[in-house]
Amino acid sequence: MKIEVKTLDAKTAGELELADDIFGLTPRKDILHRMVRYQLAKRQAGTHKVKGRSEVARTGKRWGNQKGGGTARHGSRRSNIFVGGGRAFGPVVRSHAHNLQKKVRRLALKHALSAKAGAKELVVMDKAELKAPKTSELKKALARLGIDNALVIGGKEVDRNFALAAHNIPNVDVLPSAGINVYDVLRRHTLVLTRDAVSELEARFK
How many CA atoms are closer than 13 Å to the CA of 130, on its beta-carbon side? Predict the structure, then answer.
């Protein structure tokens, strides 16, 4: 499939042929869902913790009389049935990460790219470079392109001035080609790829 290449000045800089096996697939929601769950689960801290029965600092001595008290013969104040007692089956420190096959992760990225291309939410830019790190200039340039919520993917390295200028613009993320991921692609309305980024992606999937 062919796509028009734009410049930051919203001018045309030719056309680019995109690989159909990367940008022309029919998106599968189940694969995208599995990948997003995998990413979000992997980044969870998992540091939630409550005290169990063995960790509560309360007496373990039987309280009350053995008989005649009108209550059960409890042997410990640390029981979970008492206020201040330990929590039964509470959360513990653990990793939420789960496995997902590498071929599924690779396929999910292809489907995410295809989803953006199919929805006309993919923009290919000639270069993502600025002469100076001016946020106001970048906002005007993005407005000319009709972009207000986007993920911008550069080549192996992101232009420093462009990254600094985009840092203060809400809903605009900038990543190198190695950092592209399904969650960030889907969470932004528009995906912006430079020529170098397209070349890097096509080389990665060969």
Answer: 19
**pTM score of the predicted model:** 0.84
> What percent helix, strand, coil does the chain show, rounded to 5?
35, 15, 50
135 sits in which H/E element: helix 135-144
Give the integer Cα–Cα distance in Å for 29 and 105.
13
For the CA atoms of 9, 13, 17, 23, the dihedral, rounded to the nearest 10 degrees, stands at 0
> Domain limits of the chain?
2-43+98-204, 50-90
pLDDT tens readout for residues 94-132: 999 999 999 999 999 999 999 999 999 999 999 999 999
Which residues, at least 6 apart from 87, have a Cβ–Cβ distance to it below 8 Å?
50, 51, 52, 80
| Helix (H/G/I), strand (E/B), else coil: 78 | coil
Instruction: Look up residue 71 and give its two tokens.
Output: 């209550």
How buried is residue 100: exposed, middle or buried, by Cβ count under 10 Å (0-12/13-18/19+)? middle
CA distance 102 to 85: 45
Question: Per-residue pLDDT tens for 141-175?
Answer: 999 999 999 999 999 999 999 999 999 999 999 99
Where does 2-43+98-204 sit in CATH, by number?
3.40.1370.10
